[in-house]
Specification:
By secondary structure, the chain is an alpha+beta fold. The chain has a single domain, classed as Aminopeptidase. The chain contains 4 helices and 6 strands; from the N terminus they run H-E-E-E-H-E-H-E-E-H. Strands 1-2-3-4-6-5 form a 6-stranded mixed sheet. A hairpin with a 4-residue loop joins strand 5 and strand 6. The radius of gyration is 16 Å and the shape is globular. It starts with 7 loop residues before the first helix and ends with a helix. Bound molecules: coenzyme A.
Length: 153
């Protein structure tokens, strides 16, 4: 991850801090450990990264391969979106991914994010050593709250 490797205490501090070290403002970037509720095992990480205005944020996620295809990606994606709209009061949430990344695309589609763009050869694929297409998904607060309201009645 961009923020590691660290020892356990440094990671706990990083996850739990409330003030941005650089700006001394309340933090706008949140990295979370993904933990299995039954065992407490850490199986991955995810985050939400707001812009300076606190208007728009980008999402990211990664899980250990042993835990793929159990619905955890969809669950954490939904919780990141809820956190962004309900608690951070964001207006728009988006995420880019490699267009070939079926799992990541499905996490977004299952959470009603809209595919808004395909950026041609915009994503550097380290494994394949080439530029590949990038898909961008997004959802607006008004859409998310409307869907929640419609489901509730
Ligand atoms: C993307 C990721 C978080 C998805 O997590 P997950 O817990 O497996 O997702 P879910 O179980 O909620 O599954 C969502 C869908 O993706 C599919 N899927 C998940 N991982 C997949 C994989 N590696 N290959 C093919 N399909 C996959 C599931 O089968 C499901 O498909 P469906 O909607 O057709 O039934 C996980 O695959 C991952 O950590 N990938 C590596 C990191 C990464 O790519 N991060 C995003 C960078 S933009």
């Amino acid at each position: 991850m961009a923020w590691g490797p660290n020892d356990e205490q440094a990671t706990r501090n990083f996850i739990s801090h409330t003030i941005d070290n650089a700006t001394r403002e309340p933090r706008r970037d949140f990295d979370f450990a993904v933990v299995l509720s039954e065992t407490g095992a850490v199986i991955g990480s995810c985050g939400i990264y707001a812009d300076d205005a606190g208007d728009t944020a980008e999402l990211g996620w990664i899980l250990h391969t042993d835990h793929w295809k159990h619905g955890y990606g969809t669950e954490l994606g939904g919780e990141l979106i809820r956190f962004g709209f309900e608690e951070l009061k964001l207006r728009r949430i988006f995420a880019p991914c490699a267009a070939v990344n079926y799992g990541s695309r499905r996490v977004m589609e299952r959470n009603n994010m809209r595919r808004e763009a395909t950026h041609v050869k915009a994503f550097w694929a380290r494994v394949d050593n080439e530029w590949i297409d990038e898909a961008v998904y997004a959802i607006l607060a008004e859409e998310w709250f409307r869907d929640r309201y419609v489901k509730a009645i």
